[in-house]
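Exercise 7 asks you to align residues with tokens for two separate proteins.
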Amino acid sequence: MKKLFIASFVFSCIVSISSCDFVTIPEQAGTTVDTTTSTVKHKVLIEDYTGHKCTACPPAAVTANTIIANNGENVIAIGVHAGFFASPMTTGTQYLQDFRTTAGTAYDTYFGISAIGNPNGMINRKDYTASTTVHVKSYGTWAAEVAAELAKPALAKIEFSNTYNTTTRILNCTVNATFLYDTLSGGPYKLTAMIVQDSIVADQLDAGVYVPTYVHRHVLRDNINVNGTWGDDLVTGTLVANTVISKNYVYTLPATYPAAGGPSSTVCDANHCYVVAFIYNDATKEILQVEEAKIIP
């Protein structure tokens, strides 16, 4: 899914903070997983909590993209714009865009990411407890955390079927979740599905420099779950191995996010949008499996 040649091309643009004036860039890709002919991989989700006024945040984005380039489709990232540095300006001509989401703000509040400071994030939401902050990982530790997660066996798999009408902008998404073992304890287990958009060119503060044409990667745009932010129930009782649990979501992509338009909005380009879905243990919040697929293959 992720093309390995992004490293030399995209990273050089992001690092060169003065003028990144292109819009066509290699981006993260997404496909349906063929679990009949390949071994199911334990994939890893990087949540990069960021903001366009966060001057120290671009290096974290570079780190996430480097990890993706080194591990291919086994690592998926979402950029969650939340907290003080993500709030748009209401006057002037800079930092007017609003990349915040209801879900992203809720996650940031619950896990206390921006309260500690950005850039920070989570790796599969591991190590969470209500009384500690060890689940919040600085970007310098992400590579090691990801490597440790990749070494674990897959406990579940996710498969997609996406149908998108380019005229009505209606997405019909079916997510099939399968637990591979019946020995899992704890739970209940839930499924979260969200829209992520890549390659958005907009303002960013980078090392004290205003960059009007910064390329924002894998930006969280909205959740498409029936039950919203925290996802839908998969299993609340006994697990049955290899039983497929299907969830269907119908979602209309707006022309812009926020949908109301105006200076705070940025275009929703379906060609750069993905569905990212993950299974997690609602008791511990830890993610068991994650997958993504392009809306328009």
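Second protein for Exercise 7:
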Amino acid sequence: MFIAIFMKNFLHGRPRGLSLFLLALVGLSACNQSAAPPAASPVAAASPDDMVLVPAGPFIRGSDKIDDSAKQDEYGLVKPLYLDEHPQHTLELPAFWIDKYEVTNRQYKAFVQARKVPEPFEWTQNGYNLREDRLRATELRALRWIATEYFKLDIDTRRTGRDELLRLMLADQRIKDTLPVTGVTWFEANRYCHWAGKRLPSEAEWEKAARGSDGREFPWGNDWDAGRANTGDNEDWGEGMAPVGYYRNNRSPYGAYDMAGNAWEWVADWYQPYPGSDYFVDEAFGEKNRVIRGGGGGMGHYALSEFFRSAWRGYAPPDSRNSDVGFRCARDVDD
């Protein structure tokens, strides 16, 4: 992902030019329309069933922490630790709803199919965008090639029959259904939330939903526990992401999951200094970058506990697509 902690290349993969044969299997993408948020889908209207209520009231925002052990130098970080969280202050918010889980591939695929918007590039590289009916109509030799080159099945596909290949590929797609969607721009996340009858949460709403009203460091409390979150160190997650809600103890005070780790999450705000802050970086602040929150599962050996604190602020250009940045939606209580 692209944030000020360190610089990482955008998503790499096979060349974007797919074979004509593979393109014939896809059938999901279409040209994008105007940048205006689309009308809400009548079948995707926001429901409290998949959201949690964050009640009205004050919460502690930001922190006054300082890097008194020189961790920035030790780890070679570009962005100073904590300074953009200053000053800690109390902020009052009205009640709002926020998604219990990060938006999944399956949910976003419904949006892609309904609105004919571009799918995430990664889907074209891992087989997730291939339609079941087209796969079932594909002859065995081509199916074996797809299973090897795109699904990366850990089997000898030369000896695997048609039924077994289809079973394994469709099972792989069902697993990907449950992963948070990533590789989407801020604009695409914003459009999805409007289509779903919701909106992106503000940065303040996201932080309150993650840390509660008592100013806790992490969604579960004040003590770091790497086993509670997908920080990128778990080799079980070949895609870098875990199924949403997999870490049952990674739960905020209001019942929202994965607000530390798994995917970084776009929020509505531009990256700006807090009121009263004496920290300002001209090339980062302003209407240049949107805030991302939560720490990402693609960080690997960069998985320092600081990056998963509920007060931590990351940022990225709104038109960037990153393999560990996703989102969740919010809505007003009165909607």
